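Sequence in, structure out.
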Amino acid sequence: MGVLFGGAAVLMLPVLVLTGPAWLARPGGLLAALYLGCATTGLAYLLYGRGLRTTPVATAATLALAEPAVAALLGVVALHEHLSLVSWAGLVLLALGLVVVALPAGARTPDAPAPETPKAPAGSRQGV
């Protein structure tokens, strides 16, 4: 995550050079920068990183797909954007995948008979 944010900072340097830092001198600009940097990004990724420590890789990769799905749904609800039928189908498939990942491992696998252990022929001595 450090490389990701470091790379983003480098990419945003030209924007800072072109627009200048004067907007940070205003109270509204400074509060917006602090809120966006600390609350929405810093805290969120701190918690995200802590969660990744104990989450299996396959589960983490699948759950990471929820972020753009939530963003798309927020766009529909808050910004009145319209999604195509293919987009809705993708969201449904993604939701189904997240439900499958959320199920306990035993609930995902069908009941299979236990493998039989070979029986020793009569008169043989096992474990000797």
